[in-house]
Amino acid sequence: MPSENRIVAVSEADRPTLDRQTLAHELVHALQDQQFGFDRNASRSRDERLARQALIEGDAGYVAARYEERCEAAWSCLPRPDDGPGAGLDGDMGVYVATYQPYSDGPALIHRLRERGGWAAVNAAYDAPPTTASQVIHPDRYPEWSAQRVRVEDRSAANWSRFDRSPPGTTVGEASVFALLHANGGVAPFHLQRPTRPYRRYNYTHTTSTGWAGDRLVPYRSAEGEYGYVFRTEWETTGDAAAFAIAYRELLRERWGAERREGDVLVVPSGPYADAFRVRRSGTTVTVTNAPTAADLESVHGD
After folding, report:
1. Structural domain of residue 32, as residue ranges?
2. Gap between the terminal Cα atoms of the chain
């Protein structure tokens, strides 16, 4: 509770116990708030929020991990409580995988910063935090590399309109693209459980998503209350773009039973994703248009 300068542990037990690593993690958050403050800017895109969260959670996670290493090797620390029941996952796996990425890759980013310039480099990152999850998934991209700015021109018919937001839509980022592929069978089942660097819990690096260079997701709704969207992605190379377009079409067909229609259109006939999709690639750009029916695709985003 920053306003009261205290940490509160909530428990139903008469004599609550607190895991020492969890306490270390939360104490770092208290120190971060005292030294740097928490900028809760809701206007950032989803990708930007994940990137900044990776710095904050990564710093706390890295310190807690280093503390635990010393407890196990040299320090005399309070014993850790027995593991309780694991948390269940009742929601969407794709949402969970994307949301967890800062906790997985953030500590590895902090470790890389310390290797480059010690704790001074970590502290300096708060003045210029990562702006995209790609800089966290691939720490060598921070801070020089930046994502491309992607725009989606409004080509909707009179009975369709964008949601009221300026600029319209959001950037979901590489972490969310990976999560989309993972949740729909586009990534090998155990790929996530094979981390590739120290202090990284899961592996968010994949050949189909690594070439991501920028995106924009813009939602639409019709006068009748139906919904659609345009999801435009930019890629480093035409090969990267082609691989993503192929993967997207395959997950629609193999995971959701989409049927091929004329041109670039696929239609999922039934189930929770019973919609029409148009997947088009032009050079390094892939544009996915979604609408309730194939006939509505042109109304959401016409040629």
Report:
1. 2-300
2. 53
